[in-house]
Amino acid sequence: MNLIENIREGLRSIASNRLRTILTSLIIAIGITSLVGILTAIDGLQNSVNTSFAGLGANTFSIVARQDDYRQGGRVRKQDEPIDYFDAVQFKRRFPYGATISVSTVATGAAQAKFGSKKTNPNVQLIGGDPTYLMVKGYTLQTGRNLTQNDTDYGLNVAVIGSEVAGTLFEKKLNPVNQVIRVSGNQYKIVGVLDKKGGFSGGGDDRMILIPLDNARALAGSQRQTFSITASVPTVGDQDEAVGEARGVMRQVRRDPLGQPDSFDIERADDLAKETENITGYLRIGGFGIGFITLLGAAIALLNIMLVSVTERTREIGIRKSLGATPQRIREQFLIEAVVICILGGIGGVVMGLGIGNIIASLVSQGKGGFVVPWVWMGLGLVVCIGVGLFAGIYPAVRASKLDPIEALRYE
């Protein structure tokens, strides 16, 4: 009995026991589904994160007020003074690097917009910004126009609204542009509507209303405001030098004493992307561990089924040996059966894992990540299947090959 005929015999044995084959393959498929599904979902989430940061641009950094108290020399240093309008304007004037700089402030994070009888939930961000805000933050206009320098110079009551705000107030029945809405007690004429951004902002970017910076300052009255400075340098290669220059200029503006830490934070877009990539790396390790444990259980179940198969086919093994089949061929036949069953389950598991993983990633990222085909994880899943088949099949195969043909023929 040569190897080719042995393979055919193994396949015939699998085909003759369809129910056992299906159940066994299903056990493997569930294990592979958990492995490939989790890793595919993580890749899909990472893809969504990368898409979100790509819109912001890797050559962008922001200067923001330090939010937390921190320890220095064994003592807790109180939160630094917020970045005020004077600081932001002085930085914009002094920064010599040729970057595009936007100054903005959050007037309120719990605004409610109204149009006629329609109104939003009180979770709309009312942001004051300048004409460069949308560009450096990675927004795109769906319709209408951006804020102009004239709007910001005179603090006109005009606004650019997010897609969710437009959908809630106008329900695609009216063109939002040139309509007048009421926010925080003031009326604003809509001049532009933003494209849907979604992604990992949780929809917050789509619940945004942008008004001229001086208009937002007037809303604050005597309350203190903190301003954010966002800069976009020409190329990614310029960012390190630009960040260093920005730190020096901001320290001068803020009058930070020599030898003391910065009284502000600089957040780089690529740092945020790297941080999320590290987090998803840990998630991959955890996902692989969960999938491996599931597959280990599937391998033990397959081992048990193969041992039962050896017992059921004792007489068949005796007949093969009496016809000249060597122990090596007997081992090959059982190993082939175990590996083929695992591959069948693996293919089904890869397909299910691919679908389930992408569905989970799409739901979490609100459809921003796109369809992910993780060839590496799919290949790994099939390789693991073959390994599981060998692990679960080798002991039953050796046991079958050692059966005495005379005793096997007597088995009923």
Automatic annotation (TrEMBL):
<feature type="domain" description="MacB-like periplasmic core">
    <location>
        <begin position="21"/>
        <end position="246"/>
    </location>
</feature>
<keyword id="KW-0472">Membrane</keyword>
<keyword id="KW-0812">Transmembrane</keyword>
<comment type="similarity">
    <text>Belongs to the ABC-4 integral membrane protein family.</text>
</comment>
<feature type="transmembrane region" description="Helical">
    <location>
        <begin position="375"/>
        <end position="398"/>
    </location>
</feature>
<dbReference type="InterPro" id="IPR003838">
    <property type="entry name" value="ABC3_permease_C"/>
</dbReference>
<keyword id="KW-1133">Transmembrane helix</keyword>
<feature type="transmembrane region" description="Helical">
    <location>
        <begin position="338"/>
        <end position="363"/>
    </location>
</feature>
<feature type="transmembrane region" description="Helical">
    <location>
        <begin position="21"/>
        <end position="42"/>
    </location>
</feature>
<dbReference type="InterPro" id="IPR050250">
    <property type="entry name" value="Macrolide_Exporter_MacB"/>
</dbReference>
<feature type="transmembrane region" description="Helical">
    <location>
        <begin position="285"/>
        <end position="310"/>
    </location>
</feature>
<dbReference type="Pfam" id="PF12704">
    <property type="entry name" value="MacB_PCD"/>
</dbReference>
<dbReference type="InterPro" id="IPR025857">
    <property type="entry name" value="MacB_PCD"/>
</dbReference>
<feature type="domain" description="ABC3 transporter permease C-terminal">
    <location>
        <begin position="290"/>
        <end position="405"/>
    </location>
</feature>
<keyword id="KW-1003">Cell membrane</keyword>
<dbReference type="Pfam" id="PF02687">
    <property type="entry name" value="FtsX"/>
</dbReference>
<protein>
    <submittedName>
        <fullName>ABC transport system permease protein</fullName>
    </submittedName>
</protein>
